[in-house]
Design brief:
There is one protein chain. The chain has 172 residues and is of the alpha+beta class. Helices cover 29% and strands 37% of the residues. It contains 5 helices and 9 strands; from the N terminus they run ββββαββββαβααα. A 5-stranded antiparallel beta sheet has the order 1-2-3-4-5. α2 packs parallel to α3. The longest helix is centred in the middle third of the chain and has 14 residues. The protein is elongated and about 70 Å long. The N and C termini lie far apart (49 Å).
Length: 172
């Protein structure tokens, strides 16, 4: 089942778009037998620098997706992008056993990324980037590693302010 193609725009969530990256059936063995539940990994973004990911668990799939979306809305981050839709510098993000390399790209490159990382990057509004997933290929860890990498990206203005220099000194 290909679940990463699920994409919806919700009018009552301020133009936020959500994408279901993975749905897993999880089982708990109890004295009376097995109880089946579903876990949904959902990425939410506005395509304009705001993105978040969350996990929802429930006995029904739609309820798990709704809970995952609520969790993602609680954990939104802001991504610093350049004027041509890329990131300002290369970076690594890691979460659990997954590491994701985020490389800036020139205009016209497009999004070169695998499924879980692609969902996060597209919903963040980044249009030119190259990524490589290193280590674990667990979808949940790759999504959270991509978010961790994007959270660390700084604009040249932020770096200049932290160093006490001008932007021209930083970019030179």
């Amino acid at each position: 089942m290909r679940t990463n193609e699920n994409k919806r725009k919700d009018e009552n969530d301020n133009g936020m778009e959500d994408r279901v990256v993975a749905i897993k059936r999880v089982t708990k063995v109890v004295k009376g037998g097995r109880t089946m539940r579903f876990s949904a990994l959902v990425v939410v973004g506005d395509g304009n620098g705001h993105v978040g990911a969350g996990i929802g668990k429930s006995a029904e799939i739609p309820e798990a997706i709704r809970k995952g979306k609520e969790d993602a809305m609680k954990h939104m981050i802001t991504v610093a992008r350049t004027e041509f839709g890329s990131i300002s510098h290369d970076n690594y993000g890691s979460y659990g056993g997954a590491r994701v390399l985020l490389k800036r790209a020139s205009e016209g490159t497009g999004v070169i990324a695998g499924g879980p990382a692609r969902a996060v990057i597209e919903l963040a509004g980044i249009t030119n980037i190259r990524t490589k997933s290193l280590g674990s290929n667990n979808k949940q860890n790759v999504v959270f590693a991509t978010l961790a990498g994007l959270k660390q990206i700084k604009t040249p203005e932020e770096v200049a302010r932290l160093r006490g220099k001008s932007v021209e000194d930083i970019l030179a």
